[in-house]
Amino acid sequence: MTGEDEDIKKPKTLCGIRHVQTIMMFFALVIAYGMRVNMSMAIVVMTDNTLENSFDWSMQTQSVILSSFFWGYIILQIPAGEMAAKYGGMILVTTAIAINAVVSLTVPFAAYYGGWQLVCACRVVQGLAQGFVVPSIYNLIGKWTPVDEKSRTGAMINSGSQLGNAIQLVISGFIADAWGWEAIFYVNGAIGAVWVVVYCVVGSDSPQKSKLISAEERLYIQTSLGQLGEPKKFKTPWMAIWTSVPFISLIVLHCSQNWGYWTLMTEMPSYMKKVLGVDIKANGVMSALPYLAVYILSFPFGYMCDYLPKKKYLSVTATRKLSNSIGFFGPAIALIGLSYVPAGNVTLAVVLLTIVVGLNVGHMTGLMLVHLDMAPNYVGTLLGITNMAANIISIIAPLVAGVVLKDETDPDEWRKVFYIASAVYVIGNTFYLIFGTSERQKWNEPSEETDNGTQVKSADKIV
């Protein structure tokens, strides 16, 4: 049973408990991604030798510190998805933000008393904890979001990551100027602690377990998702998952998105400074513009991707593929255009960069929601698999760029980097257009064994 099968009466309230969960998940990503990038801003001040108590860390040491977060982040992606399915997303995402908040508060002490090695250890711990965040959040989306609200809810929650980046880039400089670099970590930690307290009060693992939700809203959500009765936990069908061609195409798609996106995020500041003469890192607002573009565009994209299937203009599969195509082919074209911007043309460079990054919003209402479409029973596990693979790619892509770039001031060598990223965008999305789907997979509803040994189909039970 889905929202397309029968007329489901929506609750009259404009802000239900499901919307409260959406807001809390949105801020969870704002906080998590803010903590993820705060070191990249703080380390500039921490190593400024014109200031007192600065750290004499080489560029190599700084690179190790900045990359250490991802050492931990990659490791727990798949286990996180399995644990979210077993224990529920709420306890995991709450624990993850709590750990990040505590560690953030301790980073200044680690730097002063343990040096860069202890700072790295702190970042590894934060990365390990954040490995639970995205799979857990998608587990919660799968339980809390009615079918006809899935795209805009997913887009809004995902946009929190971009807004978290943007806010951190804009305010870190002001915080450091006013109170010192240490305050960047104290503010992040304090905000994370407040979120944990609020979420423990208003959050819940599912509509069935919420003490705040009305009976009307609970019935609406459960009916839409086919969740009537207690949700069941199923054994993960690993063989079916790893032999599913649509899922393999989703892995390819997620990896290609991360290749293009992280090539932009890691290499673009150097390109704009060395080739175009624009020091984008020196301007927090300019740095934040691309992230703000993704955040703003997430709202029309979310509504569009709910509206088209609801009105039956396009199927869910066609809608996801349209969104992906905008989010992959668009940046591929704009990236090539960016590589030919004349030196010194700041306005055109920033506009194209904002377009390139902004159009990545298509993956939020495309590939990120396909996991939910294909197998809501195992969404955390699926997302853990694709996110782990994609984040390995996010490490490899900048290394490939470093091999290609012999001279960072040569526009021709930079064009090679951009052409490679564009090709990956195009190839990845084309592969998905051919083999991908948003149709519910048969292995999402595995057979259960009854007491007498007979097999029954667990159709329409979504957890």
From TrEMBL:
<dbReference type="GO" id="GO:0006820">
    <property type="term" value="P:monoatomic anion transport"/>
</dbReference>
<dbReference type="Pfam" id="PF07690">
    <property type="entry name" value="MFS_1"/>
</dbReference>
<protein>
    <recommendedName>
        <fullName>Putative inorganic phosphate cotransporter</fullName>
    </recommendedName>
</protein>
<keyword id="KW-0472">Membrane</keyword>
<feature type="transmembrane region" description="Helical">
    <location>
        <begin position="382"/>
        <end position="405"/>
    </location>
</feature>
<feature type="transmembrane region" description="Helical">
    <location>
        <begin position="349"/>
        <end position="370"/>
    </location>
</feature>
<dbReference type="GO" id="GO:0015293">
    <property type="term" value="F:symporter activity"/>
</dbReference>
<feature type="region of interest" description="Disordered">
    <location>
        <begin position="443"/>
        <end position="463"/>
    </location>
</feature>
<keyword id="KW-0812">Transmembrane</keyword>
<keyword id="KW-0739">Sodium transport</keyword>
<feature type="transmembrane region" description="Helical">
    <location>
        <begin position="57"/>
        <end position="76"/>
    </location>
</feature>
<dbReference type="InterPro" id="IPR011701">
    <property type="entry name" value="MFS"/>
</dbReference>
<feature type="transmembrane region" description="Helical">
    <location>
        <begin position="183"/>
        <end position="202"/>
    </location>
</feature>
<feature type="transmembrane region" description="Helical">
    <location>
        <begin position="240"/>
        <end position="262"/>
    </location>
</feature>
<feature type="transmembrane region" description="Helical">
    <location>
        <begin position="20"/>
        <end position="45"/>
    </location>
</feature>
<feature type="transmembrane region" description="Helical">
    <location>
        <begin position="88"/>
        <end position="111"/>
    </location>
</feature>
<feature type="transmembrane region" description="Helical">
    <location>
        <begin position="282"/>
        <end position="305"/>
    </location>
</feature>
<keyword id="KW-0813">Transport</keyword>
<feature type="transmembrane region" description="Helical">
    <location>
        <begin position="326"/>
        <end position="343"/>
    </location>
</feature>
<dbReference type="InterPro" id="IPR036259">
    <property type="entry name" value="MFS_trans_sf"/>
</dbReference>
<feature type="transmembrane region" description="Helical">
    <location>
        <begin position="417"/>
        <end position="435"/>
    </location>
</feature>
<comment type="function">
    <text>May be an inorganic phosphate cotransporter.</text>
</comment>
<keyword id="KW-0915">Sodium</keyword>
<dbReference type="GO" id="GO:0006814">
    <property type="term" value="P:sodium ion transport"/>
</dbReference>
<keyword id="KW-0406">Ion transport</keyword>
<dbReference type="InterPro" id="IPR020846">
    <property type="entry name" value="MFS_dom"/>
</dbReference>
<keyword id="KW-0769">Symport</keyword>
<dbReference type="InterPro" id="IPR050382">
    <property type="entry name" value="MFS_Na/Anion_cotransporter"/>
</dbReference>
<feature type="domain" description="Major facilitator superfamily (MFS) profile">
    <location>
        <begin position="26"/>
        <end position="440"/>
    </location>
</feature>
<keyword id="KW-1133">Transmembrane helix</keyword>
<comment type="similarity">
    <text>Belongs to the major facilitator superfamily. Sodium/anion cotransporter family.</text>
</comment>
<dbReference type="GO" id="GO:0016020">
    <property type="term" value="C:membrane"/>
</dbReference>
